[in-house]
């Protein structure tokens, strides 16, 4: 039986040798395709036979895996309550290198810092946010539309055309007119690719890389345009000290009291140092189910640098700068 | 003289010159001493023994002159004269230096000087304004970042996260009384008030079971009935809670309920007024009724 399977119409010596090899190995095995350890599928020169051998190998591996699973399941059942807990698969989030600056919710020092930092004015309800959105020089259509949509998402936002003004001169004027935030969207090759977010009265300046911008009309199954209601804000996964300050920065963009009537929510979700922004309208179907519908634009941000004062590229004091060679060396280390 | 003609024949019109750049319509000369930049018999610095150019270095303009007397000394061939920074004075200097030279060269030198001063002025103006800083992107890094972003997006499971957060906020009560889902209180109330509802139901059943209800009740207490009864429990539970919990705002709640009905149409079953359970009871009643009348009719027909 085994011989018949292996024999092929071809009088070449090489092939006969292989046949002999195949025969021997198959004869040695007891049941079907068992492979002795020294045998490797890649040594067979004939493509068809190599392929069939490989398939058999895969089949066997799969069977073994299934058997192993069944055995484990039986053992678990048998042990019942005493069974060891199920193993959790490793994910990048699980394996993340523990960051020493992770904020403990009850940390007093952090709480004290946050009580006295630049956003304390906002969080103590002394100021209301007012945002000025502008671009780099000569924006193209996509960037302009992105700015407009951002202005609808963020309440009290005004878009101004740049016209070649120097930011250092713009900033004192903004301060005098009562703006709390300056947002500059940098553009390259007709596509927005950078965001500078500057908290105005002497606040920190964050520089982000913007990617995957989707405007409203490019979104599938979107809802109608956002209304004027103040949206809620969700900030997810900002764990470290740096992440905390960035999160507060985003929170201070929006006014304090969200109008729940509007049922709109803006989400900043941090995952592996990428901040995803989404804008949804939600509706509670019952107490366990909520439906969300995406409105507004979506984009992702990646923090490049955080500067202590207002925007000053030459003499600014940088609190955090993304240094590629140091910080990107490990795949399990994240900073936000 | 013949020498120059020979040179031009060798390099000029149709033959090879290493400074020559040919395009479809024109020939350019890349020689740095060339005054017009085109490859012509009159503008070729190699084929003219008497030649002059204006060049600029580091913001200063210089006049270069070549005469036939120095043709044998290539190291000293070009005479360099520094021109004044003032444009008018520089023009005068050119005139003075090239006084008996052919008109063409003089004219072209002045033209070149004009162009150079114009672009120097523009450079100075631009450096005062803000300039774009070009940051080189590393393709490998960009690709890596893009891939990582995609993976992060998949790992983030944004919609689930947002839904979870919203439900948590609902549970914590940040929304106050806007949504009338009696959440965990509702669950407890369910358990507490099951007895009450059962007793009420039993009473009702007793009232209406006068006559022909007995065996039908068992059949009907199956799947669909159970769900209906749950809803009835919900209703009774919610209605009881509302009556108990709030004194003043009953009207508000009703209006909110109405609003809710508009908003959450799926909840219409649960939010119908108190007649609901009774209605459903009646529905069962109707079914019974039909079953009973049908055989009667048949009997009559036969």
From TrEMBL, chain A:
The keyword Oxidoreductase does not apply. It comes from the Eukaryota. Residues 1-46, 65-87 are annotated as: Disordered. Transmembrane segments: none annotated. Residues 129-312 form the Brix domain. SUPFAM superfamilies: Class II aaRS ABD-related. GO terms for molecular function: rRNA primary transcript binding. Residues 15-30, 77-87 have a biased composition (Basic and acidic residues). It is found in: Nucleus, Nucleolus. GO terms for biological process: maturation of 5.8S rRNA; maturation of LSU-rRNA. InterPro entries: Brix (IPR007109), IMP4/RPF1 (IPR044281). Keywords: Ribosome biogenesis, rRNA processing. GO terms for cellular component: nucleolus; preribosome, large subunit precursor. PANTHER family: RIBOSOME PRODUCTION FACTOR 1, U3 SMALL NUCLEOLAR RIBONUCLEOPROTEIN PROTEIN IMP4. May be required for ribosome biogenesis. This is Ribosome production factor 1. It comes from Cyprinus carpio carpio.
Automatic annotation (TrEMBL), chain B:
The keyword Iron does not apply. GO terms for cellular component: nucleolus; preribosome, large subunit precursor. One of its GO terms (biological process) is maturation of LSU-rRNA. InterPro entries: Mak16, Ribosomal_eL28/Mak16. The keyword Nucleus applies. It comes from the Eukaryota. This is Protein MAK16 homolog. Residues 266-282 have a biased composition (Basic residues). Residues 189-302 are annotated as: Disordered. Belongs to the MAK16 family. Keywords: Nucleus. It is found in: Nucleus, Nucleolus.
């Amino acid at each position: 039986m085994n011989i018949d399977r292996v024999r092929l119409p071809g009088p070449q010596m090489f092939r006969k040798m292989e046949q002999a090899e195949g025969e021997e190995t198959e004869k040695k095995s007891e049941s079907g395709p068992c492979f002795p350890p020294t045998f490797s599928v890649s040594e067979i020169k004939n493509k068809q036979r190599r392929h069939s051998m490989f398939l058999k190998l895969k089949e066997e591996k799969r069977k073994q895996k299934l058997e192993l699973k069944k055995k484990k399941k039986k053992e678990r059942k048998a042990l019942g309550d005493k069974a060891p807990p199920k193993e959790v698969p490793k994910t990048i989030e699980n394996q993340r290198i523990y960051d020493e600056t992770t904020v403990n919710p009850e940390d007093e020092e952090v709480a004290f810092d946050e009580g006295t930092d630049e956003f304390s004015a906002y969080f103590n309800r002394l100021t209301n946010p007012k945002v000025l959105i502008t671009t780099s020089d000569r924006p193209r259509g996509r960037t302009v539309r992105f700015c407009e949509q951002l202005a609808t998402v963020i309440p009290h936002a005004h878009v101004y055309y740049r016209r070649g003004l120097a930011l250092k001169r713009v900033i004192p004027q903004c301060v005098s007119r009562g703006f709390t935030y300056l947002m500059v969207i940098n553009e390259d090759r007709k596509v927005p690719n950078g965001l500078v977010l500057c908290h105005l009265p002497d606040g920190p300046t964050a520089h982000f890389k913007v990617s995957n911008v989707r405007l409203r009309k490019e979104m599938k199954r979107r809802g109608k345009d956002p209304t004027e209601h103040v949206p809620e804000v969700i900030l997810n996964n900002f764990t470290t000290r740096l992440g905390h300050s960035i999160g507060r920065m985003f929170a201070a963009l929006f006014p304090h009291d969200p109008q729940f009537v509007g049922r709109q929510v803006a989400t900043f979700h941090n995952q592996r140092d990428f901040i995803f922004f989404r804008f949804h309208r939600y509706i509670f179907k019952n107490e366990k189910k909520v439906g969300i519908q995406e409105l507004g634009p979506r984009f992702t941000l990646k923090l490049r640098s955080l500067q202590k004062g207002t925007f000053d590229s030459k003499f600014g004091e940088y609190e955090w700068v993304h240094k590629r060679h140091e910080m990107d060396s490990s795949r399990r280390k994240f900073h936000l | 003289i013949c020498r120059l003609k020979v040179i031009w024949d060798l390099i000029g019109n149709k033959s090879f010159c290493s400074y020559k750049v040919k395009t479809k319509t024109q020939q350019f000369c890349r020689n740095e001493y060339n005054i017009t930049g085109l490859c012509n018999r009159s503008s070729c610095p190699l084929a003219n023994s008497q030649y002059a150019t204006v060049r600029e270095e580091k913001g200063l303009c210089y006049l270069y002159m070549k005469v036939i007397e120095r043709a044998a000394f290539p190291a000293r061939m070009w005479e360099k004269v520094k021109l004044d920074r003032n444009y008018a004075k520089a023009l005068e200097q050119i005139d003075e230096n090239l006084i008996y030279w052919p008109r063409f060269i003089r004219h072209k030198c002045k033209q070149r000087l004009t162009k150079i001063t114009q672009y120097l002025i523009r450079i100075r103006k631009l450096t005062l304004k803000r300039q774009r800083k070009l940051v080189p992107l590393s393709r490998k890094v960009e690709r890596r970042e893009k891939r990582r972003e995609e993976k992060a997006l998949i790992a983030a499971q944004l919609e689930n996260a947002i839904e979870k957060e919203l439900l948590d906020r609902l549970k914590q009560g940040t929304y106050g009384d806007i949504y009338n889902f009696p959440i965990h209180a509702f669950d407890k109330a369910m358990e507490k008030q099951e007895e009450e509802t059962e007793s009420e139901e039993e009473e009702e059943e007793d009232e209406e079971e006068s006559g022909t209800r007995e065996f039908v009740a068992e059949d009907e207490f199956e799947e669909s009935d159970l769900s209906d009864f749950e809803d009835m429990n919900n209703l009774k539970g919610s209605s009881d809670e509302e009556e108990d919990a709030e004194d003043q705002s009953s009207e508000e709640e009703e209006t909110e309920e109405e609003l809710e009905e508009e908003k959450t149409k799926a909840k219409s079953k649960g939010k119908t007024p108190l007649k609901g359970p009774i209605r459903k009871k009646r529905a069962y009643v109707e079914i019974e009724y039909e079953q009973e009348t049908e055989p009667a009719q048949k009997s009559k027909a036969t």
